[in-house]
Structures are given as structure tokens and as C-alpha cells.
Amino acid sequence: MRKFFSKITIKTVAVFTAATLLCVFQAVGVDLIIVERIIAGIVLIALARYFKSAAIAVFIAFIIPLFYLPVGLEYGSPAPGYIAAVFETDPSETAEFLSIVPVRDFFYILVLIILLAFALFFNRGGITTVTSTPLRNRRGKIVALVLIIILLFFGSIPYRFYRLVYKSYAAYADLISKAETTPINDFEIIKRSDALEKDVRVVVIGESVRKDYLSVYGYPHKTTPFLDGANGIFIDTLIAAGPSTMTSLSRTLTAKENERIDWSRTVVTLGAQTGYETYWLSNSGFAGKTSTAVSLIASQSDRMIFLNARGGVEAGAKDDFEFLAKFDEILKNETLKNDRKTPKLIFIHMAGSHSPACNRLHGFANRFDLPYGKEHNCYLASIEKLDSFIKALVDEMSAQKLSWSLIYFSDHGQGHYENNKEIGLRHGGSAKQGYEVPLFLLDSAATEHVVIKRRISGLRLIDLFASWLGVNTDKTDPRYTFSDFPEDLNITTQNGAYDDLADDPALY
Fold first, then answer.
1. Which fold has domain 186-265+277-464?
2. I want to staple 241 with a disulfide (CB 3.0 to 4.6 A). Which of 388, 423, 439, 458 is the partner?
3. Which residues are paired to 419 by β-bridges?
4. What local confidence, expressed as pLDDT, does residue 324 receive?
């Protein structure tokens, strides 16, 4: 048996391991030339066996990226949004994420580590090493082999992975640095309309809600009974500005300067500049941080309320219905300015339908029984819970006899995944539905239910906000209003052209 393994160690296992690792990194989206990388992997593993320290170094260099494998197989190669998730996600959210990753993905890690260890370390005593040759020939061969191993590493799969991680981190760090250091600047108000003034305006930011699971947008199961008959404007379709919270909201809630994020001007500062008292309510963990994109925007408001203020495993996302008491308190708290009641602009960032959806219900009844598994039915129930939440906000504002207007949109959609023969939903930008999200406007003065069959980019939401607040500014496009806007046809996403993305339709 030992002789058998000795014969196959380098020739077979090294080839198999290098080829397998290549396929793994192809799967996670690292752009590689297949034949060249197979050869590089084989030679690198084979030569590293001649030096114990080199074998250990190669082993470590290869296995670190392997721990990214469960994420890579499901979501693709590292991107700034994933780096942001590392820094902006508390342990409870991490645990929730890991709970929906298929167990087989973790099994792959174990198998590949065993294969790699076998190829690098098995029967090293049975080969002739450079260090066993005469001294006069040793130095030159050692130097040559070390140089070859180093060169192979810099052209290898792991190096490409590390380089991609570094670039993604640098992009994220640059974004946060600019957000933290950019001073707040005013928009230049070109035109103002007092006719649109309201006692209170509300912006509800949903989480992980894709449009095609709302019955108000045509889903056959009744997930939005209130919205189905509500008066307002329903836009079909909003294409989210990113496939994750950070990438989407950092672009959605800010002005743009030559297509770059202008951190000095946000929807919060625009609301304050137009005379509103601003509030930010969030069910996303703050945990004392000020260096996350969304928290930085939130910090520009007059008052922040984080339901999940502590962060950490014991905190987790709270029940979105806990917002209602805070909302009622804000509505009843009157602020006077120049003997006049100051209107309020309230942002509410929900936990919504963030996966796993069953953790978002907090006792809300799940009446759905489709044959796709518990998590899918929980997702449908989370949509119905959203509908009930919007109704509760509207009922409270109406009960206090306020003039009001409410915008709802979701930060991004989700994609289907299968685990243990059940189907759930999670973050994903590889399909259109990872970007297709609901956008609607409800208003105390609305008298009909209007559906606009037109496509709009999430980058244009700042323009809609400006017109909704009754202003035209130097940083916004007045052509974009809720009642009328030019259709955005050629939309580019972080995963390529929107029209070229795969289709992942809702399950009925």
C-alpha cells in the first residue's frame, strides 16, 4: 500500500489537487487561464515538496482562500460589498449567514485540505531532496528552486485571490475614508414648491425584498393585502444600485458628482436643508460604529434611534414592529420654529426579509404552505408582515389627522438557493431578481392606485427624493418625478449589464 501511494503522490495527487483547486477558484469567479494555472499548480506543489518550509508555506497559502469557498461557490469572487459585510456585520448576522450555506460547501473544504496535505507532505522521506545532494551542487539548486517557487506563487491561484481581496478592501476603505472626511455641503436650491409641504414624510427602506413576491406587483398569492388596494403610485421596476446593503444605499442615498458618490450631500442633508426635522430609525446593528456607509448617512440626521444598538450575538435584529412605538412618539413630539410646527422627515431602515426569513417573523403568523420548504414560506410571510407594517404606519399618521407622504423601496433583492431539498432566498446579484425591487409612494392626498410600467435605476432615487420634497437642485435631475420620468434602458449592475443577467423567477 505504501509503495502504491509513493508512486501516485506527485504524479497523480499533485495533478488532481492542482486541477481541483483551479476548478474551485474558477467557480468563485477568479479569472484564470485554465491550462497555465493547472501547470503552475502542479509544478508549485511538486517543487514545494523538496523543502519542508516551502511545503508548509504553500499549504498555508492555499488553505486560507479555501475558507472563502462556501461564500465563493454561492456568491462568486470577493467584491467591495463582501468586504463591507465583514466589517459591518455583527456575529449574530454572521451566524445567520452560515446557517443557510449548504453543508456540502464546508465538506469541500475538508476534502481539499486533506488532498493538499497529502500532495505536499506524504512520503517526503521517499524522494531525493536538494538538501541531500553534495554541498557544491546544493546552493545553486536551492536558489534556483526557491526563485522558481516564488515566481510560481506570484502567478498562482492563491496569489490572484489575495490580490482580489486586497483590491476589494482598498476600494471599501477608500469609500469609507471619503465618507468620513468629506464635509457636509448644501445643495443649491434652484426652485422650491411650497404646495408639496406635508406634516410628516416617511422613507421606509426595506431589506432583501424582491418585487415579484408582492401581490401588488402581480404575485398570485396574496402577500400584500393592504397595498393591493392602497392609493398611491407603484413603479415597476426599480433596479437597485447594488446587490448588497452597503453598495446599494451608499449610491441610492447620496448625490453624484461625475457618476461618483458625493458624500457631502445626502437625502438626509437635503431634507434638513428644505426645513424638515430629520430622524433615522434603524434595525441594523450600530454597535458603536461610525465607520459604516449607512451609519454615516444616519449620523447626519437630527436624531438616530437604533433598535439593535449594542450589536453582538445577544442583540441581533429586533422585531420591526418595535419601530411603531418610536414612530408614535416622534409624531406626537412637536417642535416649533418661528412659532410654526416643524415638519418631520423620518427614515426607517427595516430588517425586513433579510435571510434567514424565519428569523424576521418574531411571532407574525405564517399562513403560507407552498411546497418549497419552510424558509420560502417564511419569506412570503415576511412580505405580508411588511404589508402590515406599512399599514400600521399609515393608520397612525391618519389617526393623528396629519398630512403625510410615504416612500418605500428595498435596498436589493435576493436569489433562490436549494439546501436539503428545500428552497430559500438569500443575497445574490447573478440574476435580474437580485436587483428588481419594489418602489411605491403612498400619500394622504392620493385618490387612486396608479401603476407606472417603466424601469428606473436606483441611482435616480436622489432625483425622486428631491422632487418629492418639492425642490429642484443643482445636483438632481428635475425630469425624475414619481408621476413621470424618462425610462432608464441601459442599466449596468455590479454583475454586468442588467439585461444580460440570468432569470430567476418567483416560485408559485
1. Alkaline Phosphatase, subunit A (3.40.720)
2. 458
3. 422
4. 96
Domain ranges of the chain: 2-172, 186-265+277-464
- Name the burial class of residue 195, with classes exposed (0-12), middle (13-18) and buried (19+) by CB atoms within 10 angstroms of its CB: exposed
Residue matched to cell numbers 425630469: 479
> How far is the C-alpha of 90 from the C-alpha of 134, rounded, in Å?
57
Q: Say whether 19 sits in a helix, a strand or coil.
A: helix
- Closest to 173 (Cα-Cα) out of 246, 111, 226, 90: 246
Report the 10 Å Cβ neighbour count for 269. 20
Three cell numbers written together for 65 = 482562500
**Exposed e or buried b per residue across 438-454, where buried means at least 16 C-beta atoms within 10 angstroms of its C-beta:** bbbbbbbeeeebeebee
Query: Beta strands 415-419 and 189-192: pairing type?
Result: unpaired
Cell of 30: 477568479
Helix (H) or strand (E) holding 63: helix 52-66
- Rg, C-alpha atoms of the chain: 27
pLDDT over threshold 80, residue 12: no
What distance in Å separates the CA atoms of residue 145 and residue 140, rounded to the nearest whole number?
9
Closest among 117, 24, 28 to 77, alpha carbons compared: 28
In this predicted structure, the answer to whether residue 134 has a pLDDT above a threshold of 70 is no
Distance from C-alpha of 248 to C-alpha of 294, rounded to nearest angstrom: 10
172/83 Cα distance (integer angstroms): 7
> For residue 36, how many other CB atoms are within 10 A of its CB?
11
Contact assessment for residue 439 and residue 451, using Cβ atoms and an 8 Å cutoff:
no
How far CA 406 is from CA of 198, 229, 264, 442, 460, in Å, comes to 10, 16, 25, 5, 17
Biggest alpha carbon distance in the chain? 96
Say which DSSP state 502 is in: B
Contacts 24+ apart (CB under 8 A), 223-227: 223/380, 223/383, 223/384, 223/387, 224/383, 224/384, 224/386, 224/387, 225/384, 225/387, 226/387, 226/388, 226/390, 226/391, 227/387, 227/390, 227/440
For 235, the grid coordinates are 413603479
Query: Could you give the CA distance from residue 75 to residue 171 in angstroms, rounded to a whole number?
Result: 19
Could you tell me the three cell numbers for 151? Answer: 515566481
- Sign for the pseudo-dihedral over CA of 218, 221, 224, 229: positive
Q: Which amino acid is at 98?
A: L
Determine the pLDDT at residue 157.
64
pLDDT in tens, 329-363: 999 987 766 567 889 999 999 999 988 899 899 99
Do 444 and 428 form a contact (C-beta atoms < 8 A)?
A: no
Confidence of residue 24 (pLDDT cuts 50, 70, 90): low
The pair phi, psi for residue 62, each rounded to 5°, is -85, -40
Length reported for the chain: 508
Phi, psi of 507 (to 5 degrees): -100, 130
Phi and psi (nearest 5°) for 434? -70, -15
Instruction: Name the region of 257 (left: φ>0; alpha: ψ -120 to 50; beta: rest).
Output: beta
308: nearest Cα among 279, 280, 285: 285
